[in-house]
């Protein structure tokens, strides 16, 4: 079956991090039955797809991305029966489910790895990437691990060889060069698809094909490891593998696929998502996640420049228009909360800036992804010490920076800004102890602001973020302009305002959002000055402020406005 109706273009995806969404059995860990309880909530929000972060059996070194059995459900999340019920109930409510396919690496606890490390000539020997040491016994090349724990190679005495792990030591990379391994992956995909799941988010997919020469990264600083991405990003056979996956599996089902494409510039992204290439429907791009990188990469205290953010987002909109398809996201389980990073989480501006960001993102072309809690404007957390953090990456980075001699205050500032745990604190449902997430102490501390910021409070407040999201989602579903319209940037150099138009068959939406906490002027673009303007959505409830003839608007802090602009003779939609 082919994706003839391209339903994923109309999808609005809600991402669930199972561990932190809703705990049904009060062991402090979110679970599948907790998700089932919240299906009515999700249906009411208007989303129609759930992306589930990994729920498979796992020792949980990397919160489930280290998988020890791709056919089993992790014990604390529930049973396969619970999953089947979740799938059925979601489908009955008009909600599809896509799974996380994490097949760049497995866990060291997977039976394949346990066998693989035993010898060089058993069935699983080549399921992973093994290399002999250099003559001096050192690692095969200078690649460092993405999680900052040192070399990307780990020596295994049993085989007298090193294995590659781009991420944690406990996550050996799978060897995609091996056709038997690829067949195992395809069989597993069929297993879940035959259950009725509706697609996959393909984890780290741009990293599965390695340069078989395994060259040193020549740009590495002296005495430091090279970039783990060198020789593994968008590798030589990645498209061949994905086309094979499409032919063998995906082409037989009407599913949605989104590939996590780290270090993939837009031209390369097209190779993954042009429909005629028969690979994936879309990718998660990272360019806009890089706008505030500093001298240590992601862990930084830099503030982004709006012009940089616009440049990259506008580029993706323009380059993919008509030839590929975008994913639209501000954050996920690996990123800080978007309102803290791109908006302003000061209580005075939190709601305005969160809704402004939602507006300027979700009126773009592509499939929206909403990370759990974004719809109520959940914020970053600043735990006092590293001991409160759970993420393996945060701990590795803390160690690395300490070894480098950075002051604790500086390190904690980076962790507060960028730790992945910012996004992983439990979902804030209500004002009860543990915020309605659980009756037991959660596996990770709650954000202490939960008594103010929670679903219950938000929904009953005068200005509900949740309801604003509902309005946007509803509008998107009904609007061909939002789905299909051409994208045109406005004043990309403006340092306060994010603005663009979407136009479909002569019908235009003008979208604008202020990133400033002061009042700023916005001049309506000349070619739209004589048009009638009809308000589609705004995040202020009082009248728009403008000059007498309406050619200049005075945008209040973090104000967002979408107009439908119309020449008098044109009929609306
Ligand atoms: C990407 C996932 O999004 C992230 O959470 C995980 O740590 C890495 N892949 C490694 O599995």
Describe the structure.
The protein has 573 residues and is α/β, with parallel strands linked by helices. It is built from 15 helices and 20 strands. The strands form five sheets. Strands 11-10-9-5-2-1-13-12 form an eight-stranded parallel sheet. The protein has a five-stranded antiparallel sheet with strand order 14-15-16-20-18. The longest helix is centred in the N-terminal third of the chain and has 17 residues, at 179-195. The protein is globular and about 80 Å long. The mean pLDDT is 96. Residues 62, 65, 102, 167, 203-204, 260, 333-334 line the site of 1-deoxynojirimycin. 1-deoxynojirimycin binds next to loops.
Biggest beta sheet summary: 8 strands, parallel
Q: What small ligands are held by the chains?
A: 1-deoxynojirimycin
- The tally of helices reads 15
* Beta-strand segment tally: 20
Unreliable segments of 5+ consecutive residues: none
Strand line-up in the sheet with most strands: 11-10-9-5-2-1-13-12
Which shape, going by the Cα principal axes? globular
